[in-house]
Amino acid sequence: MASPINKKELRHLAELSRFNLEGREEEKLLKDLQEIVAFFEELKILNTEGVEPMTGGTTLKNIWRDDEERKDTNIGAGSGNFPEEEKGFLRVPPVFE
Questions:
Q1: For the chain, which residues make up each domain, given as ranges?
Q2: Which residues contact 1 (CB under 8 A, 6 or more apart)?
Q3: 3-state secondary structure of 89
């Protein structure tokens, strides 16, 4: 089976991710990606029927709090120390000319 990753596809992906690939880098990356895809193709033949999905291999639960409205927060408490404010936003001097 032909690999879905060829030089044309690799160059397209490199352009999208703004990578500048040199000749040797391109060849090595192409080979590595083709091997990774081949490994996943190999995994497709495994029979996983009846195998329970895993979520990270642990039974630990998320400890995040529920997202709920909070009152009496300190939002805006430091804005009085800021030199300028405009329409509810803190105004900063320009960084670039």
A1: 7-43
A2: 41
A3: strand
